[in-house]
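Field guide to reading this record: the first block holds the primary sequence, the second block holds the structure written as discrete tokens, and the final block holds curator observations. Each block starts with its own label. This record concerns Ubiquinol oxidase polypeptide II, catalogued under organism Paracoccus methylarcula.

BLOCK 1 — SEQUENCE
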Amino acid sequence: MSRLSGTARLAALVLASSSLSACKAVVLSPAGDIAERQKDLLLAATGLMLIIIIPVMALTVFFAWKYRASKKAVYSPDWDHSTKFELVIWAAPLLIIICLGALTWVGTHLLDPYRPLDRLSATEEIAGDHEPLKVQVVALDWKWLFIYPEQGVASVNELAVPVNREVEFSLTSSSVMNAFYIPAMAGMIYAMPGMETKLHGVFNNPGSYQGLASHYSGWGFSGMRFKAHATDQAGFEEWLAKAREAGGELSREEYLDLEAPSQNVPPRLYAEVDPELFNRVVNLCVEPGKMCMAEMMDIDDRGGLGLEGTVNIQALTHDKHIRRGSGEPVLGKTPFMVSSICTPQDTAIMLAGIDEGPARRVDRTPMRGHALPVPTGIFERLNAPVIRDARTSAGTPEQKL
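BLOCK 2 — STRUCTURE
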């Protein structure tokens, strides 16, 4: 029975080893220069840390063997200091930390996702007339939208780029924060609603690679994956021709339907795309009649709408399970958005049929300030500072505000 159990355990071990051998450490087998340099940084940092880890583990085993209970080891209770030992304990980790800090600082700046590439590979520099391929990425619930603004096509859950050409990703999100990650190409970058982030990368080896969302974003998170196809220029042109033949236009109305939460969405291609769609997604104004965030910020920068602009507000409800602009609020009061700008003349025309005229806000709160009548309440006299009035004689305290 014991022999059978041992055979069964050995078979299970072989089966587990064979299944693990099918796994591929993508981070350690990159297909692009940025991912390759990130791998080198990871291995260098690990090697530096092993300079301490390996001796510590070896000494742990050595001390356990040397001072085992069956051996009479020398006991020195009065020993408490060794200058050489202290130098080794403190100097070695300090030097490693300094090296790690310098390596991380240099690597962080060289591999900054916002920084354009300084080379295509270790053996190929970027030509002076090199133009990166621009790809606009929108993280939807729960799928990825890729827009090629220069080529005028778009795709869902499928990315195609040529090898040995820099790719400049511009990323945003439609609802919640997410993370865009192609391990074989470049590092991870976050996509956030109302913001635009950047990522630069390149594929040096052709193939089909896995892309995924590496930040949990709800029910359909596990299916938020896509294939990144790296091909030669001819293969990329064939993919563009396939997209144009697929037909369909990614208009603002189509995007609003696509934005609705859905899971495990198969790849889809669009032959045309609204050239202003990505900017409207970033500025949260895809819906018709809604003011863009950039325009609203510009108005605020100029001093805001003022009291006269209060007629320009329209209720906006936002529910995480329903597309923006519909549904009821989950918590709190209903927020507002500005839907249009009316001049004073437009407002007068709009309200011309009202007998009372345009509504005006009347503030009945008594005004307070210097040279105005001073309140005589006890609370005001006890808590207000002393001021002097030029109308009174010098040195005579004025009543307190």
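BLOCK 3 — OBSERVATIONS
The chain has four domains: 24-64+84-111, 130-282, 293-350, 366-401.
Residues 33-66 form the longest helix (34 residues).
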